[in-house]
Specification:
- The protein is α+β, with helices and mostly antiparallel strands and about 425 residues long.
- It has 13 helices and 13 strands.
- The chain has 4 domains: about 90 residues; about 90 residues, Beta-Lactamase (2-Layer Sandwich), CATH 3.30.450.20; about 70 residues, Orthogonal Bundle (Helix Hairpins); about 150 residues, Histidine kinase-like ATPase, C-terminal domain (Heat Shock Protein 90, 2-Layer Sandwich).
- It is elongated, with a radius of gyration of 39 Å.
Length: about 425
């Protein structure tokens, strides 16, 4: 009988007793006994159910407040007591782990803000409170955009592209310059990590100013020296062949240094946060026609160059910066494509984005080098790169111009099969011509 549930055992015993009474006395007395016994059994179960319901309605039920019971209900209450003890131990362990995590997070030099699915503040550490001027207890549950009132941060939060950190100047407290990085985790939650980079930005500003000032000071003497070299070469002031060759080489290297200084000055202007993009309607088709003519001159008939204008979409941005970026891509394609090769310039609209593409049949690039191509002075092949006459800053300029226009550079290349450089501009930068 031990294998049967407790309630079934009681019913079987009552049935057996009722059957015995029937055999000893009569069926009426047996049925009366059986009915009263079942009624008492039902009342007992209802009483235990009511006690369990009252226990479940307690705000924080514990094993010590469990009702008493016997038989099957005693077993149920005992199991619930064990379950509550296990849950209490697990809760204590989780609470201790959470407290240790919070202490560790509070000790971090970076600010940490936990955001829920709706970008409301769940928790933040003391450093984040200093960075954003918030209070964890007071501002918990508030939208982060209500407390960090900067349009660029709101846009960064809405784009869902968190691969690069956002640099913002926090004017509310001590002119802090913060690097903000959003890290998605869990069920659409986010970590907002803030770093104080005020000193780093100060050092970087000093570096940019130094490069800009030195480049500016070098430009004038280089121009004078280059002019004298050209004059000496043209007027045949040097009679020996060795002297003439030396003058030509010195003039070429002076021009190369001038190009390098000019590119450094361009980079300094692009990196200057005070130098905002001048918003104007840029007729990309006209710019590309000019670059096409310049490419023909640079190639001197050594390449097959074509221009495909598949759209008349204009761009909102700086015409000088865009022309510089596109020109660098075009000149690179010609420099690194052998005589007889093909260079294709195209302007098209794809999936709502405007795309400028330069495709060539040149030497190509190994995959390992592609992520570093936009670094300053990075050379895939040092001797070959110098032979082309480039400064090593062209793609760095392209990267900065595209970043300032919220665009991205896509590079596809394979050694021996050429390269394809594509500049993708967001839809908000595109100006579609309306039919009149």
């Amino acid at each position: 009988m031990s294998g049967f549930p407790g309630g079934l055992v009681v019913v079987i015993l009552l049935t057996a007793v009722a059957g015995g009474i029937w055999m000893i006395s009569n069926i009426v007395i047996a049925l009366l006994f059986y009915s009263i016994a079942l009624l008492l059994l039902v009342i007992y179960h209802l009483r235990c159910l009511a006690a369990l319901d009252r226990w479940l309605q307690i705000p924080v039920p514990t094993s010590s407040t469990l009702p008493d019971g016997s038989g099957a209900w005693g077993d149920v209450f005992a199991r619930l007591a064990r379950l509550m003890r296990n849950l209490s131990q697990s809760h204590q362990q989780v609470s201790l782990a959470l407290e240790r995590l919070r202490r560790a997070t509070s000790a971090m030099p970076e600010g940490v803000v936990i955001l829920d699915v709706a970008d409301h503040i769940e928790w933040c550490n003391p450093v984040a409170e200093q960075h954003f001027g918030i209070d964890c207890n007071r501002d918990a549950g508030q939208p982060i955009t209500f407390l960090v009132r900067q349009s660029q941060f709101a846009e960064y939060l809405a784009t869902h592209n968190y691969s690069e950190p956002l640099i913002v100047k926090q004017t509310r407290h001590q002119e802090l310059i913060l690097s903000l990085q959003l890290v998605p985790y869990g069920d659409k939650q986010k970590l907002l990590i803030s770093r104080d980079i005020t000193r780093l930005e100060g050092v970087e500003t000093m570096r940019r100013d130094f490069v800009a000032n030195v480049s500016h000071e070098l430009l004038t003497p280089l121009t004078v020296i280059g002019g004298f070299f050209e004059t000496l070469s043209e007027e045949n002031w040097v009679s020996s062949e060795m002297g003439k060759r030396a003058l030509v080489l010195m003039a070429d290297q002076t021009k190369r240094m001038q190009r390098l200084v000019e590119d450094l000055l361009t980079l300094s202007r692009l990196e200057n946060s005070q130098n905002q993009v001048r918003e104007e309607n840029v007729n990309v088709a006209d710019v590309l026609r000019e670059l096409y003519q310049e490419a023909q001159s640079l190639s001197s008939g050594r390449h097959h160059i074509s221009l495909n204008l598949d759209t008349d979409v204009k761009l909102l941005g700086s015409i000088d910066e865009l022309r510089s970026a596109f020109g660098n891509l075009v000149s690179n394609a010609i420099r690194y494509t052998a005589d007889g090769g093909e260079v294709i310039l195209s302007w098209k609209n794809q999936n709502g984005q405007s795309v400028f593409t330069v495709q060539d049949s040149g030497i190509g690039i190994d995959q390992e080098h592609i992520p570093r191509l936009v670094e300053r002075f990075y050379r895939v092949d040092l001797s070959r790169s110098r032979g082309t006459g480039g400064t090593g800053l062209g793609l760095a300029i392209v990267k900065h111009v595209l970043n300032r226009h919220q665009a991205r550079l896509e590079i596809v290349s394979e050694p021996g099969k050429g390269s394809c450089f594509s500049a993708w501009f967001p839809e908000k930068r595109s100006i579609v011509q309306k039919d009149e």
